[in-house]
Amino acid sequence: MAIKAVLFDIDGTLVDSNDYHVEAWQAVFNRTGATFDDRAVHDQIGKGTDMLVPTLLPDTDEAEQERMGEEHGRIFKSKYLERVTPFADARDLLVKVKDSGRQVVLASSASSEELEHYVALLDAGEIVSVSTTSDDVERTKPAPDIFATALKKLSSLDASEVIVVGDTPYDIEAAARCGIAAVGVRSGKFNDQALRDAGAVALYDDVAALLADFDASPLNG
User: Fold this and answer.
1) Is the pTM of this model over 0.70?
2) CA dist 97 to 6, 8, 117, Å?
3) Which of 5, 100, 156, 220 is buried most, with the most CB atoms less than 10 Å from its CB?
4) What is the pLDDT of residues 118-141, one digit of tens each?
């Protein structure tokens, strides 16, 4: 079937924020006395608190996980959010998708407040048809909930009629659990092997490269 909607991750895909999330999480972990190198934390970025914290601190109970997530959110929003910039051609790719007759969907593990900020940053209010955030689901990526919720909002479409664009293995795994194909971008600084092992159907350096190859890309299927 032809692709009728494109589901975009945001952090690391449309905006350059992954390193800032690492710094914010490191501040949280430092306050609890936990020590991780930056790569270990980076390799969990793309997950929400419910998945990230138990991976790094498996003995942390749910109340402490929630507290740490709230602290991360406060630090990120107060110190880093205003420093986040869109990747080159991010908005242009969204416009290209819409102009091609397809729906533009934002499907992120970010909070709804962060989503609103990024929509404004990308000047995408009139481009985006549907959005989902961590506030809409019980479990974040790599659980399928965020993409499954987006698919429900696209009630007339089948999984074969949509495609995901994301920068982490967790985007690609979550999409696969919904029966959705996914394109990986390297802008989030995950290695090719991790993205391919997760099931990416194609890899691009960033959204600018994907835009340049749009006509031949899986988005134009």
Assistant:
1) yes
2) 7, 11, 21
3) 5
4) 999 999 999 999 999 988 999 999
For the chain, the C-alpha Rg in angstroms (whole number) is 16
Q: How many other C-beta atoms lie within 10 A of the C-beta of residue 116? A: 14
- Side-chain half-sphere exposure of 9, counting CA atoms within 13 A: 35
pLDDT, residue 134, reads 87
Q: What percent helix, strand, coil does the chain show, rounded to 5? A: 50, 15, 35
Please say whether the structural domain 5-16+85-220 has been given the CATH code 3.40.50.1000: yes
Model confidence at 109, pLDDT cuts 50, 70, 90, reads confident
Q: Which pair of tokens denotes residue 68?
A: 């740490």
To 10 degrees, the CA torsion angle through 203, 209, 211, 212? -120
Q: Please say if the pLDDT value at position 1 is more than 80.
A: no
Q: How far is CA 135 from the centre of its chain?
A: 14
Contacts of 114 (CB under 8 A, 6+ apart): 10, 76, 77, 81, 108, 133
- Token pair of 149, please? 């919720």
The domain locations on the chain are: 5-16+85-220, 18-83
